[in-house]
Design brief:
With about 475 residues, the chain is of the alpha/beta class. About 30% of the residues lie in helices and about 10% in strands. The chain has one domain (about 5-385): Alkaline Phosphatase, subunit A (3-Layer(aba) Sandwich), CATH 3.40.720. The chain has an eight-stranded mixed β-sheet, sandwiched between helices.
Length: about 475
């Protein structure tokens, strides 16, 4: 072992997927021990009748397995509190027991059914205790075992997607604690890197990246800072990846984001495609890949999230939240040929826990950048995981192929929440009225394909107007 090799990393790549807990995806990766905080198989919750519901391994050969848990669990601050504390409001001081997942999922199923949202046939509240074994996720599990898994990585805040993605990009959500706010007015890591002459690029999967519309410094950035997944593959193959690449999945209900209750196997294929792109490119030996998930999405995890988080700033939090608690534990896998196989990466005792701002801290440490907020200033980086003096040449995914789902996608006809948010942000792009006379109207969109078409057409109009100088950059 040669010690921290972070100075030899020239490319940091992050793929952030959607709404899965650590236990749900990786809890059975290794037997539970002092060296791995996984599942024993005896962890349980009780249902509304007081019956014990124990965790179990999902049979990935069964039809519909990759659409588990069959419905969209409860998200957001109140639902997360109910899952952790058994109440929508945490006790004081907060002491999580993680025993409210089954009862909260029962409420979520009932809500989905009342509101006409998709629920897979036969779904019951016990499904939230279903966990994917390694055989079901050979790509994610293969990378976690073949390189490094972080078994104490937490979402930054105990709530849903946009606040956590804001922390991932800007180390603050400006007090916001739900998805009602999807754009923010603070500097992001992307603007910080631009100010220090460092390169970055945000890649959407098959449409303009949603993250572009989230911050002033991304909205005003040139088109060359954005691309699609095919561009990422080309850039990796050509050895022209920027110093930081941020990858999005596709957001639709038939896409590869892994948001419940969408097809998890498609996300496995995306993870493998990202890995193959960087591994087969000339920059592989100087690359560190993060595979992360923005939040737990209401899925069971047995580890109570810690307190002691550093508030990012003095902004008052919605619902009275003070930003001193982390969110629920989520999967995090670190991939580099400088990482020994079989690593379970943890920070030293007494350190702040790993959370989404640890990616920011790793970028800042590598290139000597200042912190964005007090949260990333306090966060640990992951440089110590890069302990090999010479890059490995083996491939832990040699011969491994992502599995293919069977059964019908219960959500296939639904417009996803992220599609709706993306369309709303797109509608706010500043374009002269004269450019919009024949453009589609947001209010007229009904189906997933309608929304995809609207986002693509409206974004193209904005980009064309920018090139002609007819629209503001932001």
């Amino acid at each position: 072992m040669a010690g921290n090799q972070l100075p030899s990393i020239n490319h940091i790549v992050q793929l952030m997927l959607e709404n899965r807990s650590f236990d749900h995806m990786l809890g059975f990766l290794y037997p539970k021990s002092d060296n791995f905080e996984g599942l024993t198989g005896s962890e349980s919750n009780t249902d509304a009748s007081g019956n014990t519901v124990t965790v179990y391994q999902i049979d990935h050969t069964a039809a519909g397995a990759y659409f588990m848990p069959g419905a969209d669990p409860g998200e957001g601050y109140s639902n997360t509190n109910e899952q952790l504390f058994g109440s929508g409001k945490p006790p004081s001081p907060p002491a999580a027991t993680n025993t409210g997942f089954v009862t909260n999922f029962a409420d979520a199923i009932a809500y989905d059914q009342r509101s006409g949202r998709s629920v897979q046939a036969g779904t019951t509240a016990s499904a939230v205790m279903g966990m994917f074994p390694p055989a079901a996720l050979p790509v994610l599990s293969g990378l976690a075992a073949g390189f490094a898994v972080c078994d104490y990585w937490y979402s930054s805040v105990p709530t849903e997607t946009f606040p956590n993605r804001a922390f991932a990009c800007a180390a603050t959500s400006q007090g916001h604690m739900n998805d009602g706010t999807a754009s923010f007015t603070v500097p992001s890591i992307f603007g910080l890197m631009t100010a220090h002459s460092l390169s970055w690029k945000i890649y959407g999967y098959d449409q303009e990246p949603l993250t572009r519309k989230d911050f002033p410094d991304t909205l005003s950035a040139p088109d060359s800072c954005f691309g699609l997944f095919a561009d990422f593959q080309s850039d990796a193959a050509a050895g022209t990846l920027p110093q930081y690449s941020f990858l999005e999945p596709s957001w639709g209900s038939t896409g590869n984001s892994q948001h419940p209750n969408y097809d998890v196997s498609l996300g496995e294929k995306l993870i493998q495609d990202v890995y193959n792109a960087v591994r087969n490119g000339p920059g592989w030996n100087q690359t560190l890949l993060f595979i992360t998930y923005d939040e737990h999405g209401g899925l069971y995890d047995h580890v109570p999230p810690p307190s002691g988080a550093t508030p990012p700033d003095a902004t008052p939090g919605e619902f009275g939240f003070d930003f001193t608690r982390f969110g629920v534990r989520v999967p995090a896998v670190l991939v580099s040929p400088l990482i020994p196989a079989g690593t379970v990466f943890r920070v030293p005792a007494g350190s702040a826990p790993l959370d989404h701002t640890s990616v920011l801290k790793t970028i800042q440490t590598r290139w000597g950048l200042p912190a964005l907020t007090a949260r990333d200033a306090a966060a640990p980086d992951v440089g110590a995981v890069l302990g090999l003096a010479a890059p490995r040449t083996d491939d832990p995914l040699a011969g491994v192929t992502a599995r293919t789902s069977t059964g019908a996608n219960p959500a296939a006809a639904e417009v996803s929440q992220l599609q709706l948010a993306n369309a709303q942000l797109t509608s706010q792009l500043q374009v002269p009225l004269s450019e919009l006379h024949s453009a589609p109207l947001l209010a007229n969109q009904q189906t997933p394909s309608d929304y995809d078409h609207y986002i693509a057409a409206r974004t193209a109009t904005w980009k064309a107007a920018r090139r002609r100088g007819n629209a503001p950059a932001g």
